[in-house]
Amino acid sequence: MSSMVWQKMVTGRMVLRKDNPLRNRKWKWRRIIPLQFWMIIAIGGAAGGTARAGITVVPPKSGHSAPSAAVLAALKMLQARGKTLHNFSADLKVTVHHLRTDEKDMNIGKIWYLRKGGTTEFDIRFNMLVVDGAIARHHADHDIIFDGRWLIDRNGAAKIYRKIQLVGTGKKFNPLRLGQGPIPIPIGQSPAMVLREFHVSVVPNQAHDEAGEAAKAQFIHLRLVPLDKRAFAFIQMDFWINPVLALPVKIERIDPDGTPTVAVLSKIKINHSMRHNFHVAAPASGSGWTVDVEPLRASTSGSIAK
Questions:
Q1: DSSP string, 38-90
Q2: What is the pLDDT of residues 109-150, one digit of tens each?
Q3: Are strands 198-203 and 260-270 parallel, antiparallel or unpaired?
Q4: Helix (H) or strand (E) segment spanning residue 5
Q5: What is the reported pTM?
Q6: Which end of the chain has the least Cβ crowding within 10 Å, N or C?
Q7: Residue 141 sits in which domain range?
Q8: Could you tell me the CATH number of the domain that includes residue 210?
Q9: Residue 173 carries which DSSP code?
Q10: Distance set, CA 10 to CA 45, 64, 85, 261 (Å)
Q11: Phi, psi angles (nearest 5°) of residue 193
């Protein structure tokens, strides 16, 4: 799978706010992650993030209706989960449907997430690519890692290693907070913050089976639509939340051109004994890899939260 396809898949399109200072970096998030989680797991606010300069909060539209009790209950549940979630791991499937060609690409792998103190780390590892139902690559060997300071994209199949520093020494940054990172998920964030950015609704439930097995919980279907359509490069985000875990088990992002990207989590383990290395060394010189390392520039470091 080409680097461009991956970028559109897991970040797909950019989901950073358009006024986010990271977007002005030479090497942007969109060149690494799609929906990312990303498609996938954004733990912000109480989960260890702090606001950064340059983020403009969009005020509610005039006449915007008050959120329903169901919406407030769901957002409060996610906010509370952010205070208790220290780590998790899960199997991951990310599918993008290319509408022009009607081709569906599915990347299959695993995600690890760890929060310690004010530092967030994650590793998204894909080991299989399926195109239109047929296995295109058995060993994708692709990692996207954030170790608290550096964001690393290691593509073993293409022999490309890219590394960009997002956080200066002694500073903290949560790459998963709404509007700041590649995966806007309202976990650990106040309902008021979410409602100032999005129109939020609870979609009536339908029979849903996220992991190919009999559903064991009645999922809460939460839909977020940006109040300012210019602020995010997506027009809708949907979350299917397992109320027992208080975590999304499925996320769907719709791009402005209608392209859907879907991430599904299964075999989720929360707050368990995790021993995972969130660091990967750069390939040795002369190994045939393309290596691109970009330290944090002085002009950029001021925009990262302390």
A1: BBS--B-GGGT----TT-PPPPPPTTPPPPPHHHHHHHHHHHHHHHH--EEEE
A2: 999 999 887 788 889 999 888 888 887 777 778 899 988 888
A3: unpaired
A4: helix 3-10
A5: 0.76
A6: C
A7: 3-301
A8: 2.50.20.10
A9: -
A10: 23, 32, 23, 8
A11: -65, -45
